[in-house]
């Protein structure tokens, strides 16, 4: 078992503590939080070991799980890497692309592994269809959330949209060609609603919308490709897959047939992939443990986390 320590015991940090504590792949050593009052409260309520000094915790573990505010990601990760510790770091990887690049270089020089917490990669609905997404040419994503003061210290692009940016980059294997975007601040000092159009060199276009002042929650993405339409509901953990194939010579009574202007006939059919229930956060933590033990590439690498941050920053810069 890998010894793990958590930096940050806020809302998400407490979830990580609970899951690491129940995981068969980790031994939870303890946690550090600069808010001593909160730290003592968490330690007393849940029984986790509180380290008053961050360096002492890092020294005691193999893996450092960084669940702190974004502004502190780089400092925490740099300290852990320089002590030869593997790092799991919540999204976004850091506050700037330059910091992220520095972490990539540091991790390589100290021969440690890193994974970024883009949890939607482990969403069971996305996992069920990811291998069916081939060369999508148009993608539309809506990520809407009811207002919550937590996270409003950063633009909605870094708070919410970055999930969809990472998911899109994981299935579109082409460099970004152009980005246009708009953002509006309604209640926060930074944009609360944003829309971005990302054009890729292979012709694919992704249209992403994010809002944190909606009346209802929604997390849906739609992928359009030559032979299929694939819809993923990240919130409800549901998928819809509609595919096309050449129509049979003689159509059945219930076959859905479309004919284009050139007279070509296609049959529409539906697929219902199995969606295996899981705990996405536990899965991302445990696959990182497997990558360390087996010396394989983490599911979401520091480089991929940096690419998502780079696109997010380009979107913000184009407002």
Automatic annotation (TrEMBL):
It comes from the Bacteria. Residues 3-118 form the Gfo/Idh/MocA-like oxidoreductase N-terminal domain. It holds the Pfam family GFO_IDH_MocA_C3. Residues 156-216 form the GFO/IDH/MocA-like oxidoreductase domain. One of its GO terms (molecular function) is nucleotide binding. Gene3D superfamilies: Dihydrodipicolinate Reductase, domain 2, NAD(P)-binding Rossmann-like Domain. This is Oxidoreductase domain-containing protein. InterPro entries: Gfo/Idh/MocA-like_OxRdtase_N (IPR000683), Gfo/Idh/MocA_Oxidoreductases (IPR051450), GFO_IDH_MocA-like_dom (IPR055170), NAD(P)-bd_dom_sf (IPR036291).
């Amino acid at each position: 078992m890998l010894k793990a320590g958590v930096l940050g015991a806020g809302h998400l940090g407490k979830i990580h503590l609970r899951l690491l504590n129940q995981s068969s792949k980790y031994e939870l050593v303890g946690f550090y939080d600069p808010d001593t009052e909160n730290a003592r409260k968490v330690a007393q309520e849940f029984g986790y070991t509180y380290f008053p000094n961050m360096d002492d915790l890092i020294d005691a573990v193999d893996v450092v799980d960084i669940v702190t505010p974004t502004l502190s990601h780089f400092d925490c990760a740099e300290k852990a890497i320089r002590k030869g510790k593997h790092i799991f770091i919540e999204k976004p990887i850091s506050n700037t692309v330059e910091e992220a690049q520095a972490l990539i270089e540091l991790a390589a020089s100290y021969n440690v592994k890193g994974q970024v917490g883009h949890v939607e990669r482990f969403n069971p609905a996305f996992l069920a269809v990811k291998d069916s997404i081939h060369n999508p040419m148009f993608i539309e994503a809506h990520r809407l959330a009811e207002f919550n003061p937590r996270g409003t210290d950063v633009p909605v692009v870094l708070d919410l949209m970055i999930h969809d940016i990472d998911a899109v980059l994981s299935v579109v294997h082409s460099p970004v060609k152009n980005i246009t975007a708009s953002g509006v601040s309604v209640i926060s000092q930074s944009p609360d609603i944003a829309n971005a159009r990302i054009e890729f060199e292979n012709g694919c276009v992704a249209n992403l919308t994010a809002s944190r002042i909606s009346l209802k929650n929604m997390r849906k993405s739609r992928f359009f490709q030559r032979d299929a339409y694939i819809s993923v509901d990240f919130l409800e953990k549901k998928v819809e897959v509609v595919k096309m194939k050449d129509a049979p010579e003689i159509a059945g009574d219930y076959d859905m047939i479309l004919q284009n202007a050139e007279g070509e006939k296609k049959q529409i059919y539906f697929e219902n992939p199995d969606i295996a229930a899981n705990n996405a956060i536990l899965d991302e933590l445990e696959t990182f443990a497997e990558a360390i033990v087996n010396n394989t590439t983490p599911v979401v690498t520091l480089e991929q986390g940096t690419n998502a941050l780079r696109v997010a920053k380009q979107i913000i810069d184009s407002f």
